[in-house]
């Protein structure tokens, strides 16, 4: 039999497909007899179970929501996790019902942010055995970002400004906390300019304290170091 590669599918011509030029379909490997363990199974450490609440933007007794460790191309990308080490199909009825309520709540919170048109909700679960749902905000007016390829565009687009990102996280966390749980992401400190009538010393003091706050925040955000490889899995 001739080993002709399969034709490139039609979606590569869609305006939402992020790449252009000559493409080939990758050769498929042979299927493995036994799949490797994911994080959190077969003795592999569970990143979610090991992470403290401070690595999250919001938490309650049974659920936690976390962000990436730095801004990405989309206005906000969040992950909803159960606190218990369970996968989707293992959820007892109480958690299954709460998952529905929280999914709706989180979608609405993210959609209420300025400049967000749609929220894509995904669950893959190939990287970690601990339940985690992805929420990706699609910027308003960016029609090319509609649909399937949004997670790819997230890595392609230039990162959004950090203050905007932090503000978005704080707004979503505050929205969730209105219903219960703890808001862990705080709004960005406003770095205002001291008016000319203020003494130079006062202005210098303010600048210094703002600097400290910024450094503290950076240290905090460096804490839940998530690698790119753990994303979208
Ligand atoms: Zn776990």
Structure description:
- The chain is an alpha+beta fold.
- It has a domain at 46-187: HIT-like (HIT family, subunit A).
- It contains five helices and six strands.
- Helix 2 (93-111) packs across helix 4.
- The longest helix is centred in the C-terminal third of the chain and has 23 residues, at 200-222.
- The relative contact order is 0.17.
- Residues 197-231 have low confidence and may be disordered.
- The chain binds zinc ion.
- The site of zinc ion has 6 residues, from helix 1.
Secondary-structure topology with pairs:
Elements: H1 47-50, E1 58-59, E2 63-67, E3 77-82, H2 93-111, E4 116-122, E5 132-139, H3 150-156, H4 162-177, E6 182-183, H5 200-222
Antiparallel strand pairs: 1-2, 1-6, 2-3, 3-5, 4-5
Helix pairs in contact: 2-4
The chain binds zinc ion (ZN).
Q: What is the H/E order?
A: HEEEHEEHHEH
From the alpha-carbon coordinates, what is the Rg to the nearest angstrom?
21 Å
CATH class of the domain at 46-187: Alpha Beta
Number of helices: 5
**What structural category do the secondary elements indicate?**
alpha+beta
**Oligomeric status:** single chain
**Sheet of most strands:** 6 strands, antiparallel
Beta strand %: 5-15%
Write out the CATH superfamily name of the domain at 46-187: HIT-like
CATH architecture of the domain at 46-187: 2-Layer Sandwich
| Structural shape | globular
Distance between the termini: 36 Å
Ligand catalogue = zinc ion
| Strand segment tally | 6
Unreliably modeled segments: 197-231
Helix content: 25-40%
The strands making up the biggest β-sheet line up spatially as 4-5-3-2-1-6
